[in-house]
Amino acid sequence: MKKLVLIIAGLLSFAACTASATPLVGNGIPPIPNSTRVDFEGASNASFSSQTIGNITFAGIAGNLRISADFGGYYNMTGVHLDNAAGDTGGIRFDFSAPVSAFAFHFGASDWEWTLSVFNTGGDLLESLNIAPVYDANNGEFFGIARDGIAYATLTSSASDDYILLDNFYTLQAQADVPEPASLALLGIAAIGAVARRRRQGKAGAWQTHR
Question: With 60 as the cut, is the pLDDT of residue 157 above it?
Answer without folding.
Answer: yes
